[in-house]
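Blinded run. Sample ID left blank on purpose so nobody reads anything into the name before looking at the predicted structure. Input follows.
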Amino acid sequence: MKCGMHKQVLAYLRGDSDVDAAAIEAHLETCTECAALVEGYLEKEQELQLELEGWQGKDEKLKEQVVHYEKGTRRIVIFTLVGLLMGWFSIRYYTDSFPVTKVITAIPYKLG
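Blinded prediction complete.
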């Protein structure tokens, strides 16, 4: 069964200023359900606290990773454009019946 002070205890834990802290603390001494709620809240708060430490790595390593990422992105764009161009040449080669343009559009395949 939920205690009637459940919402006030939660407001107290959040640090709301309109809650009577003395009344809540007195209630926590008698109500095991609310005391368990506070204890569970405090345990979770401790588990979730992260240590605030500064950057421990080297800036050179981070810069290297960024440059590597940018190079990979450029490669993807270049290969996509080359693939589209080769696809266009393929379509032109199979749909064109004029022999001169067939020879011209076949040149990229002969070079690759």
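Unblinding after everyone has recorded impressions. The radius of gyration is 34 Å.
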